[in-house]
Every structure is written in structure tokens, then in C-alpha cells.
Amino acid sequence: MNATELPTRPAHVLEDPSSKAVARVYAVAYLDAAAGAGEQNPVEELDSFRVDVLSRNPAFEELLSSRAVGADEKAALLDRTVVPRASQFFGNFLKVLARHERLDLIPYIAEEVRAEHERRTNQKRVEVRSALPLTEAQLTEITDRLRSQMNFEPIVRSSVDPTLLGGVIIRIGDTVYDSSLRTRIGVLRNRLRERYLNEIQSGRNRFSSAEGN
């Protein structure tokens, strides 16, 4: 293969290590422009396009991402299908991506937009794992407690892990609050083992000493 045959771009966006950085640039610009234009739901509209349109229509997503389709053709396709149903702001955003051949970055951009929006609005994602499904009332109680004790607005996501036996594990970023029954049993087991070993050692010391009784 000679130099002219070498691909100028990675075969897929996921192979491009700079994709995330580029997506973040677009995400910040998207939110800044939305704020300037007074858009009310830019995060939701982008999420809806990614989930309700692209994820449910993989052939359409592939067409928008294809390098075999020119930028003008993609813009025309968007004009016929998406733009009439989207806000003017969002339609223009998609056509900017088409013009710069960045429509394949939409999943990355959507993630970055969500993360940046949470940062700007002082929100943090909180993972709550429990042995049994939590009721809405329990989730509301946990959310209210976090809101009152932490300096941010919690976005609580719950999941079930039967191995916990009882209690909950709460993860906020890299910090974990573990009140699960599984962990408490483990702590108790370790304490009993330590106490048992100390008693054995104490007995050995007593019998190995001439003064022991």
C-alpha cells in the first residue's frame, strides 16, 4: 500500500481517540448557543433524536454516518425528514454537523451534552443498589436525604442486586456508601474471627509462660 492509499480518517468514529474531545467541543458550543437562543429543552431534544430516531432506525443512522453520502445529500435528507419536526435551533445544529461531516459523533455529543448540562446545573448522578426493588416512596426519601445533606441536586438511578441480602449501596462518583447487610455480615464475621484468634493467642501466651495460670 502506498501513501496515497492510506486512509485519512479512522474507519469508524470509535477508533478515533480524538472523537470524544471533538464531541465535547460541539457539546459546549451546542449548550452555549441554546442558552443564547433561549432554547428550553436542548438536552431533551438531542436525547430524543438519538434514542427515538437513530436507535430505532439503524439504517437511517448508518446513512447519516456514511462517508459514501456527501454533506449536501445529508443536509437535504435532514431537510426532508427531521427538520420539519424539530425546532429550528436543533435543525440548524444537525445541518452544521452534516456540513462538517460530524453526524457520526451524535452519540458522543449527546453524552457530553448531558454531562456538561449536569455540571452547569449542579446535578450529580447517584447509583443506588438494593437487594429488593425500592418503592417510589423509598426512592423519594433517599433523594430528599441526599438533597438535604449534599451540596448538589441528585439524579438517582436504582438497581437490584440480590447478593446484597439487605440494605443499600450508594455510589456518588468515586465515593461509595455501603450499608448493605452483606457488608455488615462480613464486618461482623471479621470481628469475630479476630476476637477468636486473639483469645487463642492469649491462651497460648498464658500456657507458655511459667507464671501463667
Describe the protein.
The chain has 2 domains: 102 residues, Peroxidase, domain 1; 85 residues, no CATH class. 56% of the residues lie in helices and 12% in strands. The chain has 8 helices and 4 strands. It has a 4-stranded mixed sheet. Strand 3 and strand 4 form a beta hairpin. The N terminus is likely disordered. Keywords: ATP synthesis, Cell membrane, CF(1), Hydrogen ion transport, Ion transport, Membrane, Transport. This is ATP synthase subunit delta. Belongs to the ATPase delta chain family.
Strand content: 5-15%
End-to-end separation in angstroms reads: 88 Å
Mean pLDDT: 88
Poorly predicted regions are 1-8
- Compute the number of strand runs: 4
CATH architecture group name of the largest domain: Orthogonal Bundle
> What's the CATH C level of the largest domain?
Mainly Alpha
Major beta sheet, strand line-up: 2-1-3-4
Query: Domains counted in the coordinates: how many?
Result: 2
User: Pairing-aware structural class of the strands and helices?
Assistant: alpha+beta
Rg on CA atoms, Å:
28 Å
Could you give a quick summary of the protein structure above?
This protein is 56% helix and 12% strand.
Please name the defining characteristics of this protein.
213 residues; alpha+beta; Peroxidase, domain 1; 2 domains; four-stranded mixed beta sheet; 4 strands; disordered N terminus; cell membrane
Q: What order do the helices and strands come in, and which of them pair?
A:
Layout: H1 19-37, H2 42-54, H3 58-65, H4 71-81, H5 88-99, H6 106-120, E1 123-130, H7 136-149, E2 153-160, E3 168-172, E4 175-178, H8 181-208
Protein name: ATP synthase subunit delta
InterPro entries: ATP_synth_OSCP/delta_N_sf (IPR026015), ATPase_OSCP/dsu (IPR000711)
Family: Belongs to the ATPase delta chain family.
